[in-house]
Design a protein that fits this description.
Blueprint: H1 11-31, H2 36-40, H3 50-70, H4 74-79, H5 95-115, H6 127-130, H7 138-164
């Protein structure tokens, strides 16, 4: 059994964070090389764009689950109502700003993740929006975010292939 050093995250949190980090890298990596037009282009009938999905991950996933739910940060909770639809990107916002916003939310989330023990209960839950709370610990929040980020990275894989044929991980030709 490995001993934990004071100030370091628990081994379980480190393992889960490593998994989440790989998914986040995938999200950013699959978009590497796309120009502004392709990042903004709706490809699916629902109309979302790659940038819209990244903005959703930044605000509705990283900020919501770690800043609001897990940490209970009053400023983050208050700001949740400021965004009508995280999937929509202001046409005047440069793509680089949206991608950097995701990176900033990741850094803020990582600070919360590494400082919070696995068994810690969420500090806040919007029962008015989602009903009874269905995540009961930091570990469950992390698992939820890993699953959601992985799902969306798969969406981006499919969309990237539709845009220009690029595939993220090709095991055979």
């Amino acid at each position: 059994m490995t001993e934990q050093t004071a100030g370091e995250p628990e081994p379980e949190i480190t393992a889960l964070l490593n998994c989440l980090t790989a998914q986040r890298r995938h999200v950013l990596g699959i978009l590497d090389g796309l120009d502004e037009a392709d990042l903004r282009r709706p490809v699916l009938p629902s109309g979302w764009s790659c940038l819209g999905l990244v903005r959703h991950l930044a605000l509705d996933v990283e900020r919501f689950w770690f800043g609001a739910v897990l940490a209970g940060d009053p400023a983050v909770i208050a700001a949740l109502d400021e965004e009508a639809d995280a999937w929509q990107v202001d046409p005047a916002a440069p793509a680089a700003d949206v991608l950097d916003g995701y990176r900033r939310e990741i850094a803020l989330a990582d600070a919360i993740i590494t400082a919070t023990p696995a068994a810690t209960a969420p500090a806040w839950w919007p029962t008015d929006l989602f009903g009874k709370q269905d995540v009961h610990s930091h570990r469950e929040v992390l698992l939820h975010v890993i699953a959601e980020t992985a799902c969306h990275s798969g969406h981006l894989d499919a969309v990237r292939e539709l845009i220009d044929g690029h595939r993220w991980l090709v095991l055979t030709d």
